[in-house]
Amino acid sequence: xxxxxxxxxxxxxxxxxxGGYFMFRKFLxxxxxxxxxxxxxxxxxYLEQTKHMWNQGEKDLLEEFVSPVPELFRDVxxxxxxxKIGQVALDKxxxxxxxxxxxxGYILATPKRDHKFLRKKLKEKDIDVYPYEPLFKLSKxxxxxxxxxxxxxx
Length: 154
Hints:
The protein is mainly alpha-helical. Helix content is 72%, strand content 0%. It is built from 9 helices and no strands. It has helices at 2-30, 39-50, 56-66, 71-92, 99-109, 115-124, 133-137, 140-143, 147-153. The longest helix is centred in the N-terminal third of the chain and has 29 residues, at 2-30.
């Protein structure tokens, strides 16, 4: 009986640690940066600025791209990726979000491990991957610091 209690104690501590980790990450995203806005504020800003620029085809494409994400985290992933797509569209001065912008924003918003899925999905849709190769070569580690300067240089 005492083994069950010890096991249950470790089990509960483990789950509390995992939950605390995710809550702490959310807390860090809410802290204001040098410009006075947090990462979440910027995400919401780009979503609000570009929500009228989305067509149904691009929304469907984004849904396909976030489909492998577990349903519990899919909304968060969709928001993060859509905000990065919106940022790319605003930086380019586009009036409408097109397929190329969706792919480009997805590559910039996701870690390198997700790019394998994207390549497979693009191959299924007969979309040429070659124009996006410079973006694929950037990994999260490479563009986490000063990624915008590297992105505009390409």
